[in-house]
Write a structure and sequence with these properties.
Strand order of the largest sheet: 11-12-7-13
Number of strands: 13
Helix content: 10-25%
Shape: elongated
Distance between the termini: 63 Å
CATH superfamily of the largest domain: Ribosomal protein L6
Radius of gyration: 21 Å
Strand content: 35-45%
Length: 178
């Protein structure tokens, strides 16, 4: 039984939560998010908090996940989520071309990336990006997609990495003594 799942989710002022036809809708001042109620869970709004309960008390792993999804939606419509990416490497850089992100990552061609709806990409400097949006999963996926164009390599550490990510370094070739 999830201990976190038992906790209620507080609804701040200016946020409305509605449950209809098996879908939870959270609406804030910025945007609206929705999520399907997971099987085996019941979601109820009681005053200024949302409670998630398991339909079957024994062995239902879904209600902790459902509670976390609702908490993320409430946080997303109030403050939003963001991920910071750093680009390391000589000549590696990023710039915005309208809505498209253009990355120079050491390939013979630039890499173009169009973010999905609801996601904003801000280039703070040529080697620093901020991906932000209301949906935590989509923000994380977009950041992972951008990182996937050139993941950091272990010898020189060149590539796209998350802010604060530790890159485990390997020793290069040792000079041979024949």
């Amino acid at each position: 039984m999830s201990r976190v799942g038992k906790l209620p989710v507080a609804i701040p002022a200016g946020v409305t939560v509605a449950i209809a036809e098996g879908v939870v809708r959270v609406k804030g001042s910025k945007t609206e998010l929705q999520h399907v109620v997971l099987p085996g869970t019941t979601v109820t709004v009681e005053g200024s908090e949302v409670r998630v309960t398991a339909e079957k008390i024994t062995r239902n792993p879904m209600f902790g996940t459902m509670r976390a999804q609702i908490a993320n939606m409430v946080t997303g419509v109030t403050t939003g989520f963001s991920k910071v990416l750093e680009i390391v490497g000589t000549g590696y850089r990023a710039q915005m071309d309208g809505q498209k992100l253009v990355l120079q990552l050491g390939y013979s061609h630039p890499v173009h990336f169009t973010p999905p709806a609801g996601i904003t990409i801000k280039v703070e400097s040529p080697t620093r990006l901020v991906v932000s949006g209301a949906d935590k999963a989509v923000v994380g996926q977009v950041a992972a997609d951008i990182r996937g164009f050139r993941p950091p390599e272990p010898y020189k550490g060149k590539g796209v990495k998350y802010e604060g990510e530790y890159i485990r370094r390997k020793a290069g070739k040792a000079a041979g003594s024949a």
